[in-house]
Write a structure and sequence with these properties.
The chain is α+β, with helices and mostly antiparallel strands and 727 residues long. Helix content is 28%, strand content 22%.
């Protein structure tokens, strides 16, 4: 789901320190002080401490396997949080306390130590050294211009779009806004001046807000329709408190990333809001939804909102309402505030029913931008296993700068590649395009990007006859699993791919591949699992929810039928719309045990092609906020451990008629279940070091390089919106 607010693509990254967000209701300080005499409410003075410019406070990045966030903890002391990477979940490595001396600031704690001196933060953690410099990481939407059709609510010149709120009557204006204009085209909250509301009222909308905190404490917010609050606090570097921006209007759902910038740095809020839906008789037919991005990081994705809370509850719900900016007794600044009205998060029908209208995260086929950045930093630091994996890719023929594509007008693929008219060429070219795209990401050498474009353009212009003969459908699947991976990276990270060529490649995928895939296959499961991944990947690149959902449906129909669990009973699960698959080979069968794959008796190769297709599809779905892993995680983990017990250094004896080999896969699954979820998988964990760095075989491509140790970097939250497609 790519949250492009039409002005420019957002680079969706996961993040680190909180600017705690909450959708809920707070009170403006002036309104609280105007509470009824019966309440006799006494407001304590706000102990606001203006932030001073401090070259030590902020983000630090450089050489080593950590980055850092440093903030002032008071009286000449500092705290440094060492992190695996910025913009990630569960990224804390160590917390260090710092004291000031004549030499600089020295830090220590949790097997770590360091010193900030002369603009460098040098130290060690667990025996590994780091050398960092202070960096500024501006939001990808900072300074975004209002698109066509936007309502400009503040451009730095005046407050004409705003009025003071009338105390407890949140929907009523009480005269001109009393906030002040300041340098830099900003407006500043004046304590005790009350909140301000927009003259115009809005329903569905996309809102862009830039703000900066001026010191602690800070409590403000953006109220959608005066009813649903996105709260702004000063929490940079803090690891406690409201987790990652809690939503008062959906208290059971917590953001999983912390994305604040340091005090005095400008930040962005980008909010997409769908108002509640009502029938002609006034009955509510759908809850409001909100998607919230802080500094380009998704905190909430099509999140359903509860009824307005607290003081806002008296307002009830409505189709429209003003935008409100909160005053809560302390200053902060806003600038460049605009709103695009009327954009719906989903299409509402007259009967109140909904048709899902999803948006995709880009790049988001198998990998995301933050993940690519993480790997690039590891390569630059010479860290393993990324360094060796990168060298393997760089020196492979698929990454040759002189690589030449060999497109065919029609691919005719028989069993066992007989005949092979264009089939191996197509596979190699798709793998080469992906390889060159990765090399572009990790080196910055535009020649690689241009090579990837050359390969994709050649096939888009040449392939017109589709895929024929017995293996035509699986040939289409294998290549369509890989093509969109290359296309996603190039389209969203390199500006040199012409829009017309992108459209031609999208058309090629839709017309030369999708027709071969949509009907699935009742043959061995490796085919349908590859088809499901191909449809999911094409759906993302083509921004086509229908094709994406077809792939998801196919995956859900085949995945539980491919890996056996003893809880299935005496026979394995049947694939959707097919008879029971063939679990034996040449009259031989194996005992049904946890983790046995449908084609294990056939051979290790096809079984793991199927497992890779299953996992790759789940990985891309997870990149889009849909957790297919959770649906079949027990099966996937069982398959990993079942096979690994027969591979060195493990020493179990394989069952009769079964053979097990290493394959260039398993990294993606292991990263998800072990690194993200903390699941212990000791047998496959023992196998992986001897399997690295992985290479290429069909749709199994460079997994060590892209997924070893990346954890949950860059992943969006799980989206409840995808459940509409499941139903």
């Amino acid at each position: 789901m790519n949250y492009t607010f039409t002005f420019k693509p957002l680079v969706l990254r996961a993040a680190l320190a909180v600017a705690a967000f909450s959708l809920g209701t707070g009170l403006c300080l002036a309104q609280e002080k105007a509470a009824t005499k019966a309440e006799k409410k006494t407001e304590k003075p706000v102990d606001f401490k203006p932030a001073a410019s401090d070259p030590l406070v902020g983000d630090w990045r450089g050489d080593g396997q950590v980055v850092a966030q440093v903030y002032a903890s008071g009286k000449g002391t500092y705290q440094a949080n060492l992190l695996r990477a910025f913009d990630t979940q569960s990224n804390l490595v160590a917390t260090l306390q710092g004291t000031t001396s004549a030499a600089g600031v020295s830090f220590s704690g949790e097997s770590s130590s360091g010193m900030i001196e002369g603009g460098r933060f040098k130290g060690t953690h667990g025996g590994t050294s780091f050398d960092l410099k202070r960096v500024t990481r501006p939001s990808p939407t900072l300074g975004a211009s209002p698109p066509k059709g936007a309502v400009v609510l503040f451009d730095g010149r005046n407050l004409n779009a705003w009025a003071q709120k009338a105390g407890k009557d949140w929907l009523t204006e009480a005269g001109p806004a009393r906030w002040k204009l300041v340098e830099g085209g900003a407006m500043e909250v004046v304590p005790e001046s009350d909140c301000i509301i927009s003259h115009e009222k809005f329903g569905d909308c996309k809102v862009h807000v830039e703000f900066r905190t001026l010191g602690p404490p800070c409590n403000s917010g953006v109220f959608l329709q005066d009813r649903y609050e996105v709260n702004i606090n000063e929490t940079y570097g803090r690891l406690d408190g409201v987790p990652n921006g809690g939503l008062d209007n959906c208290t059971e759902v917590k953001p999983q990333v912390r994305a604040s910038r340091a005090p005095l740095e400008w930040q962005t809020l980008d909010i997409e809001f769908r108002a509640p839906r009502f029938s002609p008789t006034g009955k509510k037919t759908a809850k409001p939804l909100a998607t919230v991005l802080l500094n380009g990081v998704v905190l909430y994705d099509h999140q359903e909102l509860d009824l307005p809370h607290g003081a806002a509850s008296r307002l009830g719900e409505a189709a429209t309402g003003p935008l409100m900016l909160q005053e809560h007794g302390m200053p902060l600044q806003f600038r460049n505030l605009w709103l695009v009205p009327g954009t719906e998060a989903s299409r509402a029908h007259a009967d109140g029913s909904e048709t899902a209208d999803f948006k995709f995260h880009h790049p988001g086929v198998l990998v995301n931008q933050a993940q690519l950045d993480f790997v690039k930093a590891k390569i630059a630091a010479g860290a393993e296993p990324w360094k060796s994996a990168f060298e393997t890719v760089r020196t492979n023929a698929l990454g040759d700068l002189a690589y030449t594509p060999h497109p065919w007008a029609m691919c005719e693929c028989g069993p066992r590649s007989n005949p092979d008219r264009g089939c191996k060429d197509e596979q190699r070219d798709s793998e080469a395009a992906y390889t060159q795209a990765l090399l572009w990401s990790f080196t910055g050498n535009t020649a690689y990007a241009e090579n990837a474009i050359k390969i994709m353009n050649a096939w888009a212009r040449t392939l017109t006859g589709g895929h024929k003969l017995e293996n035509g459908v699986v040939q289409a699947a294998w290549c369509a699993e890989v093509w969109p991976r290359a296309a996603e990276i190039i389209r969203y990270t390199y500006p040199g791919w012409a829009a017309a060529d992108i459209a031609a490649f999208q058309k090629c995928l839709a017309t030369q591949y999708v027709p071969s895939l949509v009907d699935g296959s009742c043959e061995n499961g490796n085919k349908e699992l590859s088809m499901s991944e191909a449809l999911i990947n094409i759906g993302v690149f083509n921004d086509d929810p229908k094709t994406f959902n077809l792939g998801v449906k196919m995956w859900r129909g085949r995945a539980p039928a491919y890996i056996y669990l003893i809880t299935d009973g005496a026979t394995p699960v049947k694939p959707a719309k097919c008879d029971l698959a063939i679990w034996g080979n040449k009259g031989h069968t194996a005992p049904l045990v946890d983790g046995l794959l449908q084609e294990s008796c056939r051979d290790s190769g096809h079984a793991n092609m199927a497992l890779a297709g299953m996992v790759n599809a789940a990985e891309t779905a997870r990149q889009q906020g849909l957790d297919l892993y959770a649906e079949q995680g027990k099966r996937i983990m069982a398959a990993l451990e079942f096979q690994a017990q027969f591979l060195p250094p493990n020493k179990a004896t394989p069952p009769q008629y079964l053979a097990f080999n290493k394959h260039p896969t398993w990294e993606i699954a292991y990263n998800h279940f072990h690194n993200r979820l903390g699941k212990e998988l000791p047998k496959i964990a023992a196998v992986l070091p001897g399997n690295r760095p992985t290479g290429v075989n069909h749709h199994m491509v460079w997994e060590t390089l892209t997924h070893a140790g990346v954890g949950d970097i860059g992943l969006p939250p799980i989206s409840s919106g995808w459940e509409a497609s499941k139903r």
